[in-house]
């Protein structure tokens, strides 16, 4: 599973009560609304890599769904950079 910092996750079920640990339950509670992987890591105060493992476990067991963020097109990146440059030049 390819989760990045901007991937959105959402709780859609429950983890198996026999195998879920405290962190899995906390993540499920936190993700009742769509939230990014980065936000989950920040709220849980865990490293991103650990958070990704927890999320992948929950997706695998069907308790969570994810939508990988789409990367912006290069045209958008150029426009954004030009706008940033214009703003900096005005300062």
Write a concise synopsis of the structure shown.
The chain is mainly α and 91 residues long. It is 52% helix and 11% strand.
Question: What secondary-structure arrangement, pairings included, does this model have?
Answer:
Elements: E1 8-11, H1 22-30, E2 35-36, H2 37-44, H3 48-60, E3 64-67, H4 74-90
Helix pairs in contact: 1-3, 2-3
Describe the fold and architecture.
52% of the residues lie in helices and 11% in strands. It is built from four helices and three strands; from the N terminus they run βαβααβα. Helix 1 (22-30) packs across helix 3 and helix 2 crosses helix 3. The protein is elongated and about 60 Å long. The model has no long low-confidence stretch (mean pLDDT 84).
Q: Tags for this entry?
A:
mainly alpha, 4 helices, elongated, 91 residues, three-stranded antiparallel β-sheet
Strand content: 5-15%
| Percentage of residues assigned to helices | 40-55%
The chain-level mean pLDDT equals 84
Provide the gyration radius in Å. 17 Å
Strand order, biggest sheet? Answer: 2-1-3
């Amino acid at each position: 599973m390819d989760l990045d910092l901007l991937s959105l996750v959402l709780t859609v079920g429950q983890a198996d009560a026999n195998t879920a640990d405290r962190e899995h339950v906390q993540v499920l509670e936190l993700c009742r609304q769509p939230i990014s992987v980065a936000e989950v890591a920040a709220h849980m105060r865990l490293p991103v890599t650990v958070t990704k493992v927890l999320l992948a476990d929950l997706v695998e067991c069907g308790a969570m769904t994810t939508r990988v963020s789409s990367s912006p097109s290069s045209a958008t990146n150029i426009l954004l950079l030009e706008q940033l440059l214009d703003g900096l030049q005005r300062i």
